[in-house]
Amino acid sequence: MGKIDLGTTKYVIHARIETNGVVEKPDVVGAIFGQTEGLLGNDLDLRELQKTGRIGRIEVDVESVGGKSRGTVKVPSSLDKIETAILAAALETIDRVGPCEARMTVERIEDVRVSKRRRVVERAKEILTTMVEDITPDSIEITEEVKESIRLREIREYGPEKLPAGPNIDDSDAIIVVEGRADVLLLLKYGIKNAIAVEGTSIPKTIVNLSKKKTVTAFVDGDRGGELILRELLQVAEVDFVARAPDGKEVEDLTKKEIFKALRNKVPAEQVMDYLSIKKKEEPKPFAPRKSQRQKKQQAAQQAQQAQDNGKLETFRKFFTDLSGTLKAFLLDKDANIIKEVAVRDLAMALKNSKEVVSVVIFDGVITQRLVEIAAEKEVECLVGAKVGNIVKKPASIRLLTASDLGVG
Length: 409
Known about the structure:
This protein is α/β, with parallel strands linked by helices. It has 14 helices and 19 strands.
């Protein structure tokens, strides 16, 4: 079997294939492409992914004994870990190879970057031990090494909970709230000294108190754990801005460029709270003054708007449930009436060419950057999909909802 090119590969899917008849490598490869075609939509179509280099050459090693065939399948992937896992699950839907019944089982997904880093570390140790003693290190290397050592020593324990923090928490008017100690260390490495970690999903009282006195930016991981911490922060603390690592990445794994780009692209907390449908936890007040007639009217209007929004979400949930597994899409007007039903593969073109005013798009697929851009041009208010892909730029005028936001699946 040929060696997999790991140049741009992030993960390798390892699977086993068993058939009740004699098959060869081309039969297995053909079954993989043929039986996954159209299953996950255009964005995760294997042929398209291989054309663009996001999926490498599929390696198959199979042998036949006693009229049955068994072997291994390796699929190199440069997709993110969520998309790779979806692709792996799709492989297990293959039930025939040629005329033979078959079963494919994913055994593991290998992160090749881990093994690369391990090889780099081991090789670096070898090089270090064999270096000639009279080689003088470059002055820049010495400076950087000393600076990094100083930064790592600057981390401190803050508050009664002894939270990991940079040295400038008290002196700075603004702070960055991150998830863990490793995040604080990484920000210190790049000269950011006003970060403090929550160290868990339960937000410490120290963070809540600091948020009342300082401008707070929440900087969280781009995964489910990051969202959970963000939801809790937005409810109990006074957060001003939100920054997130790229989808599927953790803050502690980011490069310097990625860190500063994420912080530059931070968004107002109110916008995120609206997107996640989060309300502040109200603290009990000892005295509640009588509301004016104007305040009562405003409250009534807000309650009416909330009821209307809840009704829309219920309608979206019903439509999305109807579409689940169909690879189709609904284009809706402002009153949530269906204007048109189209296949997901034709959605972008149908939306772009629509002569009618489309207010909402609900579809059984992934919300992509291209679809967001087309929706913004057509002044669409809301996109509802199975999940959100790698969105680099999201217009403030568009609301993005996923199956989890609707409580589906």
